[in-house]
Amino acid sequence: MTAPARPHRDDVLIAVVGLLGGLVLWALGLDTRGGHGVDPHALLLLPLVAMSGAELLRRTMPNTALAIGCTAMLADQFTDGNVATIAMFTDLVYAAVLYGTPAAARRIPAVSMVATAAVTVTALVVFQDAQAVLLGLVFALVTVAPAWTGVSVRTHRDAAEAAQLRAEQTALLAEIDRTQAVTAERARMARELHDMVANHLSAIAIHSTAALSIDKPGTSRDALAVIRENSVEGLAEMRRLIGLLRDRGAGAEPAAVPRLTGVDALLDQARTNGAPSGLEFTLTDTRKDGLPLPAPVELAAYRIIQESLTNALKHASPGEITVGLGQDEQTLTVWVTSPYGERPGPRAPGSGAGLVGMRERVALLDGQFESGPVTNGDGATIWRVRAQLPVDEGNAKA
Predict the structure, then answer these.
(1) Rounded Cα–Cα distance for residues 240 and 263 (Å)
(2) pTM of the model
(3) pLDDT digits (tens, 9 = 90+) for 326-343
(4) Facing residues of 373 across strands?
(5) d(CA 348, CA 223)
(6) What DSSP character marks residue 7?
(7) In the chain, count of helices (H) and strands (E)?
(8) Which CATH number fits domain 171-397: 3.40.640.10, 3.30.565.10, 1.20.120.450, 3.90.1750.10?
(9) Residue 30 in 3-state DSSP?
(10) Rounded distance between C-alpha atoms, residue 167 and residue 176, angstroms
(11) CB neighbours (10 Å) of residue 107?
């Protein structure tokens, strides 16, 4: 069983001040009916004490406090009356609207107006005097005025809470957007770093392994030449990427985006790196001249080809690696096929991040991606990477 909440310190203060004020008025003989109540005169203290007790519940149990207050107010009508009792009752009406349930906040003002109208009409009928309207006015000041004051304060309080909640939600959404932007930027940087450097490092790993395993001066010199070339190019690309990251937001010119016109250079480099492993590289380009190609799509296609060639250098069996490009008005298709099977000679280790990066690039453009072993027309098993990238206005504007 849950223990009742302790009265708020402000409610205790109101109750004590109201009780002491009523006692002072009683001691001075100041009442509201001039001694026309029932005897003894001290009976007016009972409603006063009950009303003070109800004030202790004005915030924690507002409906109960108002019910006690109404009973005490009714009892006060048969005594000489006390202004403090009436004042505390108006506070209970105000508190019931402010701290009560939404239903009570709607119902109490309406009931107070109906009750005021009923008291006014009844007084006019009973006393047959226009001054009876004053009784209705007093009743309105005791009930209607505090009720609508509570409505006004509650409306402003709820509006302030709603505004604070909206501000907190806006801040939360901004933080979520910032976190997502940082995560997306980190993923993009990881893809760029992997695609730019992995090709060179893979060639270095393969040729250094060959140089160590084959004890021939000529082979070692060739391997070292390839290692040096890939080291220099990889270092240059790493410096470009670091420079881009340092200059971002400082008004630097955007870095040049790789384009499909550079595929021939990729293949030339792959031929040099793959010759010792018995790999041959060919390009099949069926695209028609004049078809537009958005920069994000062209970058994604270039990186997919670059990563596929890197994977072929690492894992492909001796044979022909084919790079294909095709395009219509809606889609750019990229595919890379390579022999699949056991590979003799040195290999470079792989982590699988390249396939993940290619899949992410395609997903960002709402394209389709597939990779894995398939059977070609000759019945041989090959490894195929295939991506379909939409070419539309949305990507063109990206």
Answers:
(1) 20
(2) 0.52
(3) 998 889 999 999 988 766
(4) 383
(5) 15
(6) P
(7) 12, 5
(8) 3.30.565.10
(9) coil
(10) 14
(11) 15
